[in-house]
Amino acid sequence: MTTAAATHGLTALFRALRSPHDKSRRNVPLPAGPAVTPELPASLRDGAARGQAGSAAAVVFDRVSLAFDEQVVLRDISFEIPRGAMRILLGDSGAGKSVLLKLILGLLRPDSGAIYVHGQRIDGMAERDLLKVRSEIGMLFQENAIFDSLTVDENVGYRLYEETDTPRAVVRARVEEVLTFVGLQSFIDVMPATLSGGERRRVGIARAMASRPALLLFDDPTTGLDPIIAATVDHEIVKLRDLQHVTSLVVTHQIRDAYYIATHQAVQRDNRVTIVTADDQTAAQTEFMVLHEGRIRFHGPAHELLASRDRYLQEFLFKTLPPW
Ligand SMILES: Nc1ncnc2c1ncn2[C@@H]1O[C@H](COP(=O)(O)OP(=O)(O)OP(=O)(O)O)[C@@H](O)[C@H]1O
Ligand SMILES: [Mg+2]
């Protein structure tokens, strides 16, 4: 890869997404040393006792709080995402959804509380150790973050081309594979500027999954897309959950898309993948969390959310679900 953008790369992008504000106190890499607590506390280690699959959940927030100066964004938030599960995070604009994702990536550090990713405590982790944690996470950025000066191939294979010793032919084959997964295999050598908004978003999904991360974070994957194109993005997210069994956290304020993702499932027969309506039991496995005024106001499956008698939730749903 020869362009200037390539020399900056995703690592630089992660760095650029750090706070430009006065959060430096919390966001500078901590000094190297025994800051890492490698083990979960016993209360979180016993997955069975907590009704969760596996001994270490993919993500655990244990009483996490974060404020920017006077503005408290998260207040004592606790939740966990079992491996292979999907959580959909809803909330008004400014509720703290992207901040929560940045905490998972270690791009922001909490004021208090503990954050575990794949069993490792990351809230006090040194930057060089965080790189390893991040290599297991694929992120679809709210801002898309596609490099316009690189081809689709170079964008999608970025991490593998730049940050691993994997032979180029092997990376190219993986790029073809993930582009096929999102239905864009014929676009491999084009420049992103020629793509539609929905296609760019799907390139972003292909890039997020290219290095086979165990955890995928989607920040507002369908905002700004028309409903037909948004549905194609929803399908990719459903396919990743049901066919690749990746743990995922989908942040959105598009309740229509969130509901669609929760109530549909991908089925593969021979080489054909179809998206069908999920039965109630399957749909209930995708849980929703609603962030409001720094707290998780609701946590549960779609049908409970829709039936909620909570005033705020009813108004939130009324604003965003048909009939308008
Ligand atoms: N680095 C930062 N420094 C100071 N304030 C910040 C920083 N990042 C986020 N905030 C503030 O924290 C709040 C939550 O921001 P966040 O980006 O998480 O919102 P969001 O829920 O993702 O909203 P949207 O749906 O519009 O994307 C906002 O008020 C935002 O201005
Ligand atoms: Mg956001």
Short description:
With 324 residues, the chain is of the alpha/beta class. The protein is built from 14 helices and twelve strands. It is globular.
The CATH superfamily is identified as P-loop containing nucleotide triphosphate hydrolases
Any idea what the CATH architecture is? 3-Layer(aba) Sandwich
| H/E element order | HHHEEEHEEHEHHHHEHEHEEHEEHH
Give the low-pLDDT segments. 1-54
Distance between the termini: 49 Å
Question: How many domains would you count in the coordinates?
Answer: 1
Helix proportion: 25-40%
Record the strand order, biggest sheet: 6-7-8-3-11-12
Strand content: 15-25%
Global Rg: 19 Å
Provide the structure class: alpha/beta
Shape: globular
Mean pLDDT: 82
Question: What is the CATH fold-level name?
Answer: Rossmann fold
Q: What's the story with the biggest beta sheet?
A: 6 strands, mixed
Q: What is the count of β-strands?
A: 12
Ligand inventory: adenosine-5'-triphosphate, magnesium ion
CATH class category: Alpha Beta
Give me the number of helical elements.
Answer: 14
Comma- or semicolon-separated keywords:
alpha/beta; 4-stranded antiparallel sheet; Rossmann fold; globular; 14 helices; disordered N terminus; 324 residues; binds adenosine-5'-triphosphate; binds magnesium ion; single chain; 6-stranded mixed sheet
